[in-house]
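re: the backbone from monday

yeah here it is again, tokenized this time
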């Protein structure tokens, strides 16, 4: 008699949700699975092996990942974080600069936030934000910093710099706000100084 003996991996669904699939390059449904290899007899699983491991499977492309893939935020979550960080940064610059009633500065502030939150942000939303956005932007900037590279952190800080420069050179309050925001974004003082220098040059020589 021929005995057909082999092994097979079986999966048990443990959790489901949405994640950023690196293979698809977008937010997709996932299943977190507990995997275990079984010995099979005539293709029927009969004896489980002791070792188990976790797998995250994309519901779209079927690619398998280690569970650490779930540590990365989805595009939707990243977008919410970026909007929150930009609003916190701009309000911080406005409050510390003491020029939140200047229409030119307010227009620039609205423009900078609309760049990351296009839907329905205007001067009245800005007025609400000046009241309700937390006074200390550090926690939000700190949270997003770990998901941004150096260029991404710089691009975010520049939004605050443009608001500060809307009515002329930095005042002391604006400068210290930008420097504190740079620290919260885990940028070095030299990197922040470079960003400030570039921003000043582009204001002094528009179009260059
Ligand atoms: Zn996928």
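seq for it, each position gets an aa:
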């Amino acid at each position: 008699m021929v005995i057909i003996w082999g092994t097979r991996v079986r999966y048990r669904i443990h959790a489901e949700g949405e994640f950023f699939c690196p293979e698809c390059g977008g937010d997709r449904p996932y299943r977190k699975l507990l995997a275990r290899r079984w010995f099979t007899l005539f293709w029927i699983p009969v004896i489980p092996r002791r070792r188990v491991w976790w797998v995250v499977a994309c519901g779209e492309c079927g690619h398998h990942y280690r569970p650490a893939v779930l540590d990365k935020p989805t595009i939707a979550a990243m977008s919410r974080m970026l909007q929150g960080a930009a609003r916190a940064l701009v309000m911080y610059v406005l409050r510390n600069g003491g020029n939140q009633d200047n229409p030119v500065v307010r227009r620039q502030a609205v423009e900078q936030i609309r760049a990351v939150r296009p839907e329905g942000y205007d001067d009245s939303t800005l007025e609400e934000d000046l009241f309700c956005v937390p006074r200390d932007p550090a926690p939000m900037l700190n949270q997003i910093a770990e998901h941004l590279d150096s260029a991404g952190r710089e691009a975010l800080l520049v939004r605050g710099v443009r608001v500060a420069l809307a009515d002329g050179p930095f005042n002391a309050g604006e400068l210290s706000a930008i420097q504190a925001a740079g620290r919260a974004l885990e940028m070095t003082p030299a990197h922040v100084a470079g960003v400030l220098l570039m921003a000043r040059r582009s204001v002094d020589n528009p179009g260059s």
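The chain has a mean pLDDT of 92. The two ends are 85 Å apart (CA to CA).
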